[in-house]
Write a structure and sequence with these properties.
Length: about 375
């Protein structure tokens, strides 16, 4: 009878023939010395150097599974495949290039087994951690990448690739990583309790580094997706502002065209320009900004949106009046600053009105619920 492993160690590989034969025995020894049952899952992206065949040969002496992927590539998706194949209570992810210290594996596992946390991350930037033989430029890139992700998690080493986590926390989660940083993806999507374990990271001695411009580009793309996931309201507001800017361009262009080429009075032309821009903003917000919300009838939505925009215009003028009349902004170019503050106030008002009235999920739910109640009453009456 096969013993259920406590830990599933996942090694994503590509051209790691020189390292795979060294790291598997080290991992097995580190766990065996602590009497922790384990399995090692090698997920290889069809390496031409024979990484997979070398790992398979080690299966005679160690509990090693090898999965070769021919139709898909990438570290993050390889780790996800490892999660899928894992049987252990805890999944541990690490690089196969000997850069992560195998002797730290028990220290990564113990806090989770003790119930002190749900996940651990090997960190280079806490007391006791560090970097070995890294050039200044590489350190600078790592620190910069970490700062960019600081709004997503509280850990200090946001670009770490060394992580252990309870496998049950991965169940039912939708992971959509781009590039290599699966650890950041998992931490954000699971929102788990995490401890950092100090490690000294050393650069690979054998093989070739995979860090290049494409990896850095993918990291930035991945960050943008995670920020959108973590702060969906901020994303909606950013899209709303972008739509508003396009509407401002259309409003101004329409105003100039009607005045200069058609001969309309500017005040009369402004009504048409506002209506056209508001119509443009409505449909773009409906299709893009609030695309995830099931929409009501277009006419009702449109009228409500125009009313909100008209009220927003009133908010802008009101704020400007207060700042100019009582805020001392009536001198020189102070009115310009008053106008900017008014526009910002109107933008926030328009966004809140659009989100909570025009494209409100809550109102739709209430309307749907009332409809269900009415239909149920009709059925009862008919019975």
């Amino acid at each position: 009878m096969t013993t259920q492993p406590t830990v599933s160690v996942i090694l994503p590989t590509y051209n790691e023939y020189e390292n795979i034969g060294l790291i598997i025995p080290k991992i097995s020894k580190a766990l065996a010395d602590e009497n922790i049952t384990s399995e090692i899952i090698v997920v290889d992206d069809n390496s031409p150097d024979g990484t997979a065949s070398s790992a398979r040969k080690l299966g005679n002496g160690y509990n090693v599974k090898v999965c070769v992927r021919k139709d898909e590539k990438g570290l993050a998706t390889a780790v996800m495949k490892g999660f899928e194949l894992s049987k252990g209570e805890i999944c541990l992810v690490m690089d196969a290039d000997m850069s992560h210290p195998t002797e730290k594996i028990p220290e990564m596992i113990r806090p989770i087994l003790a119930g002190d946390c749900d996940a651990t991350v090997g960190s280079r930037y806490v007391a006791g951690g560090g970097l070995q033989d890294w050039p200044f430029a590489r350190r600078l890139i790592s620190k910069g990448a970490g700062l960019l992700a600081s709004g997503l998690t509280k850990i200090s080493d946001t670009t770490s690739g060394f992580m252990a986590i309870r496998r049950k926390l991965l169940e039912g989660k939708h992971f959509d990583p781009v590039g290599w940083k699966i650890v950041l993806e998992v931490l954000v999507k699971t929102n788990c309790r995490v401890n950092e374990v100090p490690i000294v990271f050393k650069d690979r001695e054998k093989g070739t580094s995979k860090l290049n411009l494409r990896v850095q580009r993918d990291y930035l793309l991945h960050l943008s997706k995670l920020y959108c996931y973590r702060y969906p309201k901020l994303l909606e507001f950013a899209r709303f502002c972008i739509v508003g800017l396009t509407g401002l361009v259309i409003d101004t262009g329409m105003l100039i065209m009607l005045v200069e080429f058609v001969g309309f009075d500017p005040r009369f032309a402004a009504i048409f320009a506002f209506t056209f821009a508001a119509t443009w903003n409505y449909f773009l917000n409906r299709l893009w900004t609030f695309s995830s919300v099931k929409k009501r009838r277009i006419l009702w939505n449109y009228v409500a949106f125009v009313v909100i925009c008209a009220l927003g215009l009133g908010v802008r003028i009101g704020v400007m009046h207060l700042l100019i009349q009582y805020g001392g902004m009536g001198r020189g170019l102070g009115y310009v600053l008053a106008s900017i503050i008014g526009i910002l106030s109107a933008t926030i008002f328009n966004f809140m009105g659009s989100k909570h009235v025009v494209f409100s999920r809550k109102l739709l739910w209430k309307k749907s619920r009332q409809k269900c109640i009415v239909e149920e009453e009709k059925r009862d009456f008919a019975f």
